[in-house]
TrEMBL record:
GO terms for cellular component: cytoplasm. L-glutamine binds at Y132, S209, K215. GO terms for biological process: NAD+ biosynthetic process. GO terms for molecular function: ATP binding; glutaminase activity; NAD+ synthase (glutamine-hydrolyzing) activity; NAD+ synthase activity. Pathway: Cofactor biosynthesis; NAD(+) biosynthesis; NAD(+) from deamido-NAD(+) (L-Gln route): step 1/1. Catalyzes the ATP-dependent amidation of deamido-NAD to form NAD. Uses L-glutamine as a nitrogen source. In the C-terminal section; belongs to the NAD synthetase family. Its EC number is 6.3.5.1. The active site is at E57, K126, C182. PANTHER family: GLUTAMINE-DEPENDENT NAD(+) SYNTHETASE (PTHR23090:SF9), NH 3 /GLUTAMINE-DEPENDENT NAD + SYNTHETASE (PTHR23090). Deamido-NAD(+) binds at N459, E488, W493, C494, T495, Y496, K640. This is Glutamine-dependent NAD(+) synthetase.
């Protein structure tokens, strides 16, 4: 595997394998025509830099030819065609899986033939033969179950034959695949299930599968669920137009799934050949298997049932782009059909977490510091809904805005408008007198009139706010509701202990900044609040620059911007998701980020995301902020996360609670990740 900045733009460098399903035009029993159609699609896939191409079941003979499968002339022609296809593919890069009826020891088998670089790697017979309703396969074929450890003669050579074959490239980690055929996929326990537990990462299916109403959805369900259970990719290729329509019809459905995610799907009922292609992240699959003990337990106690057929793939390591959907905002719901449900779930996970905590305590007052920023706004909305659900008045919530030395008029005004609109008890405590006294007691230069705005100056203000909130909770029989979000915890962008890192219960600890922004935006667009005043202030808060407002600004200076100091939260949330959820190395995170963010006009944005907020980041920016993320996440921030208060996990991306998804030593070094980043990511 090549490394270094020169190989950065190669998909093979980062553990991706380009998988395609091909639907060639066929004619019933016209072997020469079908042979040439397969070769034509093979060449097209080669030009597209595919690594693995899955053709439909029996594509060399065509599927729906009934008793013609038993004709010697046709079977002789099929064997000759397989040899010709193998020869024609000698100078083509991909591995081909083609379907053909083949004879062996007085039996006829429905087979997948695996071909690479002009060589037949092996032949896999179909395990389960449908013989119900419109299917009569047992009339023609012998079943492959129990056929293991065998060899057959094909193309003038002895080649491995059986249902016990897993194919592995010696020179492209991750190109490890198994193949099964149509009905095998519909069995209660598909053959590929055990193949996955023995190491196959890409599961493939050569299918005929005629189409009836609703069957396409059934195939999607099976591909998705089987890929999820197996921690694998699943590539499915069904026979298309050109098959006999004497009694049936065919739609040519092709799909590539990765662990339940649909990466690509073909058109259907297309009279032209289809090539459906996607880049499968085999490193992600391997990492998920390592992380999930259940997968490993599933293979315990089983004797090895598969032979490994190893071959030289000779990957190109070129810049061939990246063919897969990449979510710019991986924490943000992206299914239009499920948008309301996904946002409803995210929001109500937080509401239910707080409601249960209130119930267990005995319905305390809820004390929240309201800054007029995103996080406290969202926490207040959650608290209001929790009170509504429990039948408690909104004045159960005690909201405090606490202006400091740099609090802006706009944010303070928004804080008051929000509290009034939500109907909570609202008050203001000016922390500046107490902060001046503390700075004076400490003999800080600011107390003598010097404009020294260091970390002490900032944290005196942050700490006083939290100190007031805790004492107010004591005074009113309440609890402090935390507002700090997952993104801040990841970066350590919070004041430890007596600061915004601490609370009695933090409703936002599992929600990253980008999701908070989106949920507030969704609450406006979906009509969660009818009052015009509430909608107006929520929109104003969304439009406000993210800032801690701790350092005063002169007339010439811009507002203290958090994102100017530590980087865009959009990028940091992207880095966090792929680092924490999948354990990817920094160079791969950068590769994915570049493909997701370098062109604002390409790719999908979250539903309803404002056009004016869509921007791009070049590789130099991505590398710069990724280095900041790696340094802070691995080398600095863990001690704050190790002592974080309770709060609900919200996203499958995980939480940073030491009782949940992330456990790490507080004194670890970031050197390994920084070195990997600097050695393998170009500076521009």
């Amino acid at each position: 595997m090549r490394k270094g900045p020169d190989a950065f733009h190669s998909l093979h460098r980062h553990g991706f394998v380009r998988v395609a399903t091909a639907t060639p035009r066929v004619r019933p029993a016209d072997v020469s025509f079908n042979r040439d159609a397969v070769i034509a699609e093979a060449r097209r896939a080669h030009d597209a830099k595919a690594d693995l191409v899955v053709f439909p079941e029996l594509c060399v003979s065509s599927y729906a030819i009934d008793d013609l499968h038993m004709q010697t002339a046709l079977l002789d022609a099929v064997e000759a065609a397989v040899t010709r296809i193998t020869e024609a593919c000698a100078k083509l890069a991909p591995v081909w899986l083609i379907g053909a009826p083949l004879r062996h020891e007085g039996r006829l088998y429905n087979c997948a033939v695996v071909i690479s670089r002009g060589r037949i790697l092996g032949v896999v017979p179909k395990s389960f033969l449908p013989n119900y309703r419109e299917f009569y396969e047992k009339r023609w074929f012998a079943e492959g179950r129990g056929v293991t450890g065998r060899a057959m003669r094909l193309g003038g050579e002895e080649v491995p034959f059986g249902t016990d074959l897993i194919f592995e490239a010696e020179d492209l980690p991750g190109l490890i695949f198994h193949t099964e055929i149509c009905e095998d996929f519909w069995a209660p326990v598909p053959p590929s299930s055990q193949a996955a537990t023995e190491g196959a990462l890409i599961l493939t299916n050569l299918s005929a599968s005629n189409i009836v109403i609703g069957k396409s959805d059934d195939r999607h369900v099976l591909c998705r669920s089987h890929g999820m259970r197996s921690f694998a990719a699943y590539a499915y290729s069904a026979a298309g137009p050109g098959e006999s329509t004497t009694d049936l019809s065919w739609d040519g459905q092709g799909a590539v799934y990765e662990m339940g995610d649909l990466l690509a799907q073909s058109g259907r009922f297309d009279v032209e050949p289809e090539l459906c292609m996607a880049d499968v992240d085999t490193q992600r699959l391997l990492n998920e298997r390592i992380r999930t003990g259940t997968f490993n337990d599933a293979g315990k106690g089983q004797a090895p049932a598969f032979r490994r057929i190893r071959f030289a793939h000779r990957p190109h390591f070129e810049d061939a782009g990246l063919i897969r959907p990449i979510r710019r905002y991986p924490y943000v719901p992206n299914r239009e059909s499920h948008l309301d449900l996904d946002c409803y779930e995210a929001f109500n996970i937080q509401v239910e977490g707080l409601r249960r905590r209130m119930e267990s305590i005995g319905n305390p007052k809820l004390v929240i510091g309201i800054s007029g920023g995103l996080d406290s706004t969202h926490a207040l909305i959650v608290a209001a809904k929790a009170c509504d659900r429990m039948g408690l008045p909104r004045d159960t919530i005690l909201g405090y805005t606490m202006p400091g030395f740099a609090t802006g008029d706009a944010t303070k005004s928004n804080a008051w408008k929000l509290m009034r609109a939500m109907g909570v008890q609202a008050a203001e405590i000016d922390i500046r007198p107490a902060a001046r006294q503390m700075l004076k007691d400490m003999d800080h230069p600011f107390s003598g009139g010097d404009p020294v705005y260091d970390i002490t100056f900032e944290n005196v203000q942050a700490g006083l706010r939290t100190d007031y909130l805790f004492r107010l909770a004591n005074q009113n029989g309440g609890i402090v509701v935390g507002t700090g979000d997952l993104s801040e915890l990841a970066l350590g962008w919070c004041t430890y202990g007596v600061g915004d890192q601490m609370s009695h219960y933090n409703v936002n600890s599992g929600v990253p900044k980008t999701l908070i922004q989106y949920l507030i935006r969704w609450s406006i667009q979906s009509g969660q609040f009818d009052e015009a005043a509430t909608i107006d202030v929520l929109q104003a808060i969304l439009n406000t620059e993210i800032s801690p407002e701790l350092v005063p600004q002169s007339e010439e200076e811009e507002l203290q911007s958090t994102e100017d100091r530590i980087g865009p939260y959009a990028l940091h949330d992207f880095f966090l998701f792929h680092t924490m959820r999948y354990g990817l190395p920094p160079s791969k995170v950068a590769f994915l980020a570049w493909h997701a963010w370098h062109d604002a006009e390409k790719g999908l944005w979250p539903i309803g995301f404002p056009q004016e907020k869509r921007r791009a980041y070049d590789l130099a920016e991505i590398r710069k902020w990724l280095e900041v993320f790696v340094s802070r996440f691995f080398g600095f921030a863990q001690f704050k996360r190790s002592a974080m208060p309770n709060g609900p996990k919200v996203s499958a991306g995980g939480s940073l609670s030491p009782r949940g998804d992330w456990r790490a030593p507080s004194d670890a070094s970031a050197a390994v990740w920084l070195e990997e980043l600097r050695e393998n990511v170009p500076e521009g």
